Amino acid sequence: MNHMTTRRTDQMTLVAFMQASNVSVYAGSWRYKNSARDYLDLKYYQRIARVLEEGRFDLMFFDDRLAMPSIYGDSADDAVRYGARPIKLDLTAILGAAAAATENLGLGATYSTTYYEPFHVARTFATLDHLSGGRAAWNVVTSVNDAEARNFSVDSHTEHDRRYDRAEEFIDVVSRLWDSWEEDAIVGDQESGHFADPEKVHEINHKGEFFSVRGPLTVPRTPQGRPVIIQAGSSGRGREFAAKWADLIFTGAPSQAVATDQYTQQKALATEIGRDADKVRLLPMVYVIVGETEEIARSKEAIFLNELVHPMASLTLLSEVTNFDFAGYSLDDVVTDELINSISGIRGLVQGVKKHVGADVELTLRVLANHRATLLQGPRFVGTAAQIADQMDDWFQARSCDGFVIAATHFPGAFEDFVRMVVPELQQRGLTRTEYAGPTLRENLGLEQPANSFATDQESARV
Length: 463
What we know:
It is a single chain. This protein is of the alpha/beta class. Helix 4 crosses helix 6. Keywords: Flavoprotein, FMN, Monooxygenase, Oxidoreductase. One of its GO terms (molecular function) is oxidoreductase activity, acting on paired donors, with incorporation or reduction of molecular oxygen. This is FMN-dependent oxidoreductase (Nitrilotriacetate monooxygenase family). It comes from Williamsia limnetica.
């Protein structure tokens, strides 16, 4: 079927990829001359949040890690020296500041199920949901490397499937905690002194393999019922987890063909477990470089591709994501089958990069590392506003995605350019909204508020 003859009637979901850091996901962003340098100031994040809300983005999302990149050479020296994401601020204050500066923009953050506790995460996001008027989203992740483990009194990180076993129990506990107050539990009768109905505030009394949690949560039922759930797992287990739990699924596809294949498979997984696949949004990460002319956009692209990311920063970040110390290797070493077999979890990255550069190209560590730190990490939409809107529209109509996670080449200029040049073009074509649908993130995503499991249980008991 020709997708151009059957245009979609829904609109794109737009997410801005942020880091509370000296850099964006693009590791050379701090070196760009127009990058703002006040990333340790709350006003920096508030300025960006206001720009995103002006562009009617659905969500401002913050990635996170719990350690400096320090697997390479068993040291953080190169991460510090080359600015390879050595700074990661705690996100609680930043999300609160962004909430205060905006009214409709969704606010999401990564919190690990490997080193945090369910009660802490449940309370953090329930509080954010209340204080933002229903705009919170939690990106559920399992931590990735030994550097993070060593910051939490553990010698090495847990094996992959065991991390997901813990994550499954973790999110189940968090969900029950979010349900522990029913909608109408608070009475607030000042005359009688009756504050809340104890029959509608529940202990969860969870005892499992990883956690023992009594409850109730100390935060009442939130405006969204439960915050929106994000997931970005790419392994088989991660994709199953996302199909079960996620409202938004972030993907990393080197090309549109790969994105389309991921889209079809992930929607099928969601359908298999009984979910409405149309309510699960798949969003690939893309870079957008817009210029007043295509020549201007291409000249910007050349700067970001060739001049700003130090090769050692790339290799440091490759060690971080693979949990493997490449200090004994050269950037020009060929990625052999022997090397692939010796590193757990690198095979998927290698396959993805080969799809991007071509199976016949000899893959070196330099090329592989560049795909973790530079514009090669994801697809790029480059050109005028109309050209970029054409590319985004093509992906959307082809059902390669339900929208995009926009990665910034630099802060705040990449988002300012996108909002002031590309967004009006998208709005004119009806691809993105001109006004928010409502005050909560769920309303703007077209998602229903989840039923309270305790209220449902009690209704069943009365029947």
